[in-house]
Amino acid sequence: MNNVIVVASGKGGTGKSTVCICLSVALVKQGKKVLLIDCDCGMRGLDIMLDIEQEILFDASDAVCGNCSFGEAVYKSKHNENLYLMAAPFDAENELSPSVFTQLVDTVKDNFDYVIIDSPAGIGSGFVTAAAPADRALVVANAEPTSVRGAVKVRNKLDTLGVTQSRLVINRFDKKLFKKLGFYTDLDAVIDAAQTQLIAIVPFDLNISVVMQRGAAGIDFGKHFSAFDRLSSRLQGILVPLELKGMI
Question: Which of 38, 39, 58 is CA-nearest to residue 48?
Answer without folding.
Answer: 38
